[in-house]
Amino acid sequence: MGEGAPGQRDARPSPPEQTSRRVELVATIVIDGLIDASWLFIVAVGLTLVFGVLNILNIAHGNLYAIGAYTAASAVGWYYAGSGPPLLGYVVMLGAALLVAVAIGPLLERGILRLFYRRDEIVLVLVTYALFLVLEDATKLIWGANPYYAYEPYGLLGNVKLLGLTYVAYDLLLIALSVVTGGLLWLGLNRTAAGKVVLAVIHDREMSSAMGVNVTRVFVLAFTLGVFLAVLGGAFTAPKISVQPGISITVILLSFAVVVIGGLGSVEGAAIAALLVGLARSAAIHLMPSAELFIVYLVMAGVLALRPEGLFQRAALRKI
Amino acid sequence: MRRFGPLAVALASFALIAALGGTAPNWVVFLTTMAFAKGIVALGLVLLMRGGLVSFGQGLFYCAGAYAAGLAMRWADASDALLLVALGGAVALLLGLAIAPLLAGYRSIFFATLTLALSMIAYGILNKTYSLGGSDGINLRAPSFLFYRAATPDAFGYALFVFTGLVTVAAAVLCRLHFDSMRGLLSLAARDNEIRVEYLGASVRRVSLGNFVAAAGLGGMGGALAALALGHIDPDFAFWTSSGEFVFLAILAGHQSVVAVFLASILLELVRSFSSQYFPNSWQMALGIFLLLVILFLPEGLGSLLRRRNPPPEAASLPVESLK
Amino acid sequence: MTALIEARGLHKSFGAVVAARDVSVMARRGERVGLIGNNGAGKTTFVNMVTGYVKPDRGSILLDGIDITGLPPRVVSRHGVSRSFQMPQLFQSMTPEENMLMALGIARSERLSSWRDARTPDLMAELHDLLARFRLGEYRDRSIAALPGGVRKLVDIAMAVTRRPKLLLLDEPTSGVAAEEKFPLMDVIMSALAGGEVAVLFVEHDMEIVARYAERVLAFYDGRVIADDIPTTVLGNEEVQRYVTGIVQ
User: Fold this and answer.
1) Among all residues of chain B, which has the CA nearest to that of C125?
2) What is the architecture, at CATH level 2, of domain A20-306?
3) What is the C-alpha to C-alpha distance for residues B233 and B71, in angstroms, rounded to an integer?
4) How do the domains of chain A map onto residue ranges?
């Protein structure tokens, strides 16, 4: 993957003599895997949500992640140049993500995607491929080709000892963030009126439309939410990585794998698949570094060979 | 009459290509060689897309062909271009045959992502396989052409150009004949309505498999030609940006015209070489906007401008009026 | 005379919905049978089971004594069972002529050629006859999307008969067609099918059509066949009137 990829950092073990190396290794793999899975889930669940509602597999989703990362890096740089309370930096990152999502989401959906809704779903993939090309260069034009670093928020919370290993607390914050995001998303979809409408559209678009659901509004909302999740993922991984051209590709390829493994359009599937991919990558990095590049696709090919529709999807018979 | 048509067109276009290549500057010759090589891969993708499947991993076969040619040159000291390209095509075709059963049940986005995954697996493996050059790849010698071995780089460039033109014209004619055949039409039918095809008694699976394997073979030949033209192979042949480029070409060209594929390919190479020189940071953006415009306003691709849906010559002789 | 098609004890459920309960149907060579019943009564499920689109949970289907139960549509059609669809299943990007050429091409050769031009003189001649039989000449070059509903039905049926089936199942041939065009449409269909030995089972909601064109009628209700006799008897049946035709005397 590209050099700016948000891969795992080496956990620094502080080896107490009595802990066997084997246990330590497993713990490292699991915790690193969880950290990796956390941001991956946030990004991928946005991708799967957009697919579920709009039937679009958005290749430009990785660019939205990158835009989130760049925006957060700029915002963090600006904020820490001043003298505000350091912890408020997280709020600044969140605020920046929200602003960008609200600005870009409706623009892309109403301005471009809408024009292609009557076309085949594969054509829509190509449209988002075109968007990917456009956004890739747009990002370069705005932020240039040099890497950005937003390290301040990363060290802010200090380190935490876990199972005899030392971890940067920020990484564990990421896990918490993904759990909260997933939880809120689940509650929002299953426990609110608006969420139930979204679920209804995912389940049967034509029927929902016939029942008087305002599909247009659902589309704008769902797409913007999807953009927000990508941007959020980007914003909160920005402090861990060097933000530079190419990160969008790494991320879209990984989230693709997650979404396809989990089953297109399935929120639960995205969670399980993110864990699977996170753990697989982490295991590869620690046990067989040369496999890191393709282990994800190997898992994906394996899952698809066994369950062609992904883990959480069932094929339906076409009505004739 | 119809049987000789394609052959005459083929000879004429080959003569034209060879003549133009003889007078063009070197960079044009190289650019067109690459455009033809990639066009052959895209032609395979068009064949696949006529059957309703879009592969985002055609780079896998492009790469397989390139490495087959490159390694045959390195390990077996093979140096004949015809042999190397045939080998590239054959290896890719066998690879396609081997993975086709895995893919045969998939459609639309699943097919696209799974092919993408397979090509990225190959990319990952090649990057870490140091005996095959790792991420740096391998440099190749200039091949010979049957009994001809070029004395100067310019002469080699022209010879390879003519050879590539020959392969291109052959591939184009075969594809044109195939597209007009019953089995070629069956691909379009399967894209439109798989259920009806099955009810008519034909197998959609067999159509898809056939197209996939043929596209793999064309991908391999294109890859071998590109490897010879570049004098270099590396894992980037399998990277997803290569595959994306073939998809771009296939969409730009559309599925109606074979010639449009190669025109699109030349167009893309020209745009790329000019813009990467003059606007290195915004040429992808230009490509993206162009692609959007094509999808929006020319949904059937450039080919729809070249080829009208004209009724076949037999149609006029049927007594239509009497049927009313 | 023995039965051409004999379905015995077909049973099929989709989750909690039972679409066929112990359905037994037989038809003779050349017979014209109407299938009536409300939506969801199990008519289309029966057609889907006979043609292999849906596999019955229990029961068997014999065609000319050969067991075709659970075979896929591709194989069933090769045994001599064809069907048309309630929503015509056509190749949208092709003209009616090309749709029928495709059907003929598949029907006439075991291995399709990859190189020879699809429009061979033999196929074109046969296509010409088929267009004439179904009165489709003037529509041959139109786009599918621009065809009137009835013409679409005709193209669909014309494609179904290219294999010269022994059994033809028509799923609501006159649905979506204007009332005054239903009889002319059925006339074209029945005259195009005349002369052959093909048995025709057609699903129909219009009782006048059924009375005119069927020699025998099967009434479906709640996944069962509740009546099986000549049209006047079935249409006069009290149960049929209560559950199917809605005429209560």
Assistant:
1) B318
2) Orthogonal Bundle (1.10)
3) 9
4) 20-306
Q: In chain A, which residue's Cα lies nearest the Cα of B285?
A: A134
* Chain C CB contacts of B197 below 8 Å: 106
Which of A130, A135, A257 is opposite residue B117, by nearest beta carbon? A257
Q: What is the mean pLDDT of residues B59-64?
A: 97
C143 and C21, same structural domain?
no
Round to whole Å and give the CA distance between A75 and A81: 10
Specify whether C149 is located in the same domain as C101.
yes
Mutation target for C interface from B178, B200, B206: give the one with most C CBs within 10 A: B200
Least CB-CB distance to B201: which of C78, C124, C141?
C78
Q: Which two tokens stand for residue B226?
A: 């590109």
Cβ of B190: how many Cβ atoms within 10 Å? Answer: 25
In this predicted structure, the answer to whether residue C21 has a pLDDT above a threshold of 50 is yes
Domain holding C155, by residue range, is 94-163
Report the percent of chain A where pLDDT is more than 90.
38
Retrieve residue C224's tokens: 């069962």
Q: Are A320 and C54 a contacting pair at CB < 8 A? A: no
Chain B residues with CB under 8 Å of C132 CB are 322-323
Looking at the predicted structure, is the pLDDT value of residue A273 above 80? yes
φ and ψ of B231, to 5 deg:
70, 25
> Where residue C38 sits, what CATH number does that domain have?
3.40.50.300
Q: Do A134 and B289 touch (CB under 8 A)?
A: yes
- Say how far apart CA C237 and CA C219 lie, in whole Å: 10
Question: For residue B324, what pLDDT is reported?
Answer: 31
Q: Could you write out the DSSP letters of every residue in B138-201?
A: EE-PPPBBTTB--SSHHHHHHHHHHHHHHHHHHHHHHHHHHHTBHHHHHHHHHHH-HHHHHHHT
Q: Of A100, A114, A91, A108, which is closest to residue A234 (Cα–Cα)?
A: A100
| C105 contacts on B by Cβ (under 8 Å) | 182, 185-186
CA distance A54 to B311: 39
Which residues of chain C does B179 touch, with a Cβ-Cβ cutoff of 8 Å?
A: none
Give a yes or no: residue C114 inside a domain.
Answer: yes
Number of domains comprising chain C: 2
* Same-domain check for residues C125 and C228: no
- How do strand A12-13 and strand C5-14 relate by DSSP bridges? unpaired
Maximum alpha-carbon separation in chain A = 69
